[in-house]
Amino acid sequence: CVRESGRPRFPTALPSTPTTKLRPAPSTIDVYIDMSRRARSAPKVNVSPSVRLGLESIVEGNETAIRAMLSLGSDKVVVEGLIDCMGVNSLSAEMLIANYFSASMLGAYCRERIGKSDKGGAATLAERIAREWAKPSFAPLPAPADSKKRKEPQPPVEDAAAKRAAALAEVAAKRAKQAAQKQASSPTAPAAEPKEKEVVGQREKEEEVVGQRE
């Protein structure tokens, strides 16, 4: 403001502030469209043959879990889906398996397919696996024969209850048998009573005979 004649002079009008328009929150459909656009526009990741072989080996036996994890359709190759995920999110192979795979799955892969220790968390196991995949001469061990077997069904509840009851009955029978054997091996008080009565009776007879003689 400028002072004129001792009075402050204020501007007649304040400058207008620009107003910002709020955009509505994106819907679920918008999110999926954005993800699909990113997948189409993302550059294709060039992986080395050893890394591709490693991805193929870790998919073997875990295809169903990985397909569900990435929400892949049945027509999409799982290995290609993993490579696309690397391109969309700018991930290396190590970061991919560390962020998307469980420690139990990575531990089993280390133990069965690359012959390494299965100890450690997901980040440690992913680093161990990526180090092997980076070798040009990488070759995974053959998959175990039972890797593709389904989990055996659990026995019905009634069968389990029947087995439990039979086991309890067997334990009770064994305890009863042991108690009977222990009782048979130990001397019993009632068996000694007849002998004591017999001795007392003989003494009484002897006293009667002596009294008659007198």
Automatic annotation (TrEMBL):
Comp. bias regions, Low complexity: 178-192
Protein name: Uncharacterized protein
Region (Disordered): 1-21, 137-214
Top-level taxonomic group: Eukaryota
Biased composition (Basic and acidic residues): 193-214
Provenance organism: Emiliania huxleyi
